[in-house]
Structure formats: C-alpha cells, structure tokens
Design brief:
Helix content: 40-55%
Number of helices: 13
Radius of gyration: 19 Å
CATH topology: TIM Barrel
Strand order of the largest sheet: 1-2-3-4-5-6-7-8
Order of helices and strands: HEHEHEHEHHHEHHEHHEHEH
Number of domains: 1
CATH architecture: Alpha-Beta Barrel
Structural class: alpha/beta
Strand content: 5-15%
Distance between the termini: 32 Å
Length: about 270
C-alpha cells in the first residue's frame, strides 16, 4: 500500500505544510499539487466543492506525491466514507465537541473491528494499491477540528479518544466561540492561551496538533511552538493575493484604471 507521507514526517518529529483547496477544479488542484505542498486538503465544508468536484481534484493531486486530505462538511459518516473511498488519505472533521463526537468520527474512518466503516474503496484501491483493505486503518488519518468553547471544555476527553490521529484548530470559529473576531493569526493572549492548551493536550496524548494560518511567518511561529501540521491560506486567497499584487504593481508604474475595493474571500 502507498505510504502516508504525513505519518512519516510526524514520525521523524517534523512538521507538514498543508495547502487548502476551495476552488472546485481538478486542473487547479493538480497545479497546486505540483508546488511542493506536503499535503492538500479539499475543503468540502466552506469551499465550493461537492463530491462530484472532489473526485477529479483527488485525481489531480495523485499526479504528485502530495498527500490528499478532505475536510468534510460535517460529522456525517456517509460523506466521510465516500471521501475515503474516493482516495482521500485523511479526513479533517469540523465541530467535534465531545468524546462521543470523536468516537463517532474515528469509527467512520476505520474498518471493523476498529470501527464501522462500510467496505467499498472504489478509487482508493487505484490510488493506494490492492492491499488497501489490509492497511487502511493504520494509514488513513482521522483529524478532529477543535473550534468551539464546548470542545475546549471536553478537550482531554477528545484527545484521549482511541484511534484519533490529530486535532486541527479552526482559528476563526474558535475565536468566534470565545467572543472575538473570526480571523487568522491570533496574537491576543486570551486566544493564544487556548491555542497552546490544545497543543499541549494533543502532545500529552500523542495526537498530532494542526492549525490554519494566514501567513508564512505565523505558520513558522506555530511550528516553533510545536504544531506539526500548518495550513497556509487557500488556493482562492492565494489567487486573489497574487492577482491584486501584480495589478497594484502595474498601477504603481503609472498605469491608470478603475479603482476597486479589496476582495474578501471568507475565513478560508
């Protein structure tokens, strides 16, 4: 079976750089995959991606060694299993707030006797190899998002869930849940404290800690803090930033045109 390179990175004590895909296109996913990311996450929650769009995106990522992940819309076993069957090598699941949520999530990612995932690895066999059924449980990643006050209240119970591979901080929802503006790259002490609390709890239980970041500098800060999966922006945000930058450069050279307001592409 094809190895999961994220597990290898973490086994060595390293940190993985994850990209984020919100544009429903196999071509743009393939282009992103060729840029050197350790992994790419297809965002099926807040992006514009549905299942039919996700499959060619997974195929595009497969032209490289980049590890394909998917963030599912919700803790719903059906879509978790379909994303895995399509070849995702890990699932990021939003709004995991309790131990029961975490157990339900992990179970959906594992075949019996470790879980209740239904058998039907359609495209996963092509991506991973014919021995996928024998090795999927120890290869596929189950990563729970910690992004609410309720999850913080139940943090120890969540991170100690057997079979959970990682936790992933959604900084926008976490901030919103704690009464702050939803955004990336928090430096406020009242938000850094829960971020570090999640990190330390994950480390104490041998669970990989991850976080979504808005800049390379902040991602490096989080890696230095101990995070082992850092996500930078998204394909949509990177496209907007690059396009705006080159237009601004041209305006700075004296080329006049219509003025436009900065574009806002949402939290991811």
């Amino acid at each position: 079976m094809r190895a999961n390179r994220l597990r290898e990175i973490w086994r060595r004590g390293g940190a993985a750089v994850n990209g984020w895909l919100a544009i429903p296109s196999g071509v743009s996913a393939e282009a992103m995959a060729h840029q050197g990311w350790d992994s790419l996450t297809i965002d099926m929650q807040h992006g514009l991606v549905d299942y039919a769009s996700a499959v060619p995106m997974l195929q595009g990522i497969s032209t490289t060694e980049t590890v394909p992940l998917a963030r599912v819309p919700w803790l719903e076993p059906g879509i978790i299993m379909k994303a895995l069957d399509a070849g995702a090598y890990g699932i990021i699941c939003p709004m995991v707030n309790t131990r029961a949520d975490a157990e339900k999530f992990v179970g959906a990612c594992r075949y019996a006797p470790d879980g209740y995932r239904s058998f039907g690895p359609t495209r996963a066999l092509l991506y991973a190899g014919a021995d996928y059924p024998e090795h999927a449980n120890e290869t596929v990643l189950a990563i729970a998002m910690i992004e609410t006050r309720a999850a913080l209240d139940n943090l120890e119970a969540i991170v100690s869930t057997p079979g959970l591979d990682g936790v992933y901080i959604g900084p926008a929802d976490l901030a919103l849940s704690l009464g702050h503006k939803p955004k990336f790259d928090h430096t406020e002490p009242e938000l850094l404290e829960p971020i570090e609390r999640i990190l330390n709890a994950a480390k104490a239980h041998g669970v990989m800690p991850g976080i979504h970041c808005g800049s390379a500098a902040y991602a490096k800060r989080m890696i230095d803090l101990g995070f082992q999966l850092v996500t930078l922006l998204s394909d949509q945000r990177l496209l907007v930033a690059a396009a705006k930058g080159i237009v601004d450069d041209l305006r700075g050279l004296g080329v006049e045109g219509a003025e436009s307001a900065p574009s806002e592409t949402g939290p991811y």
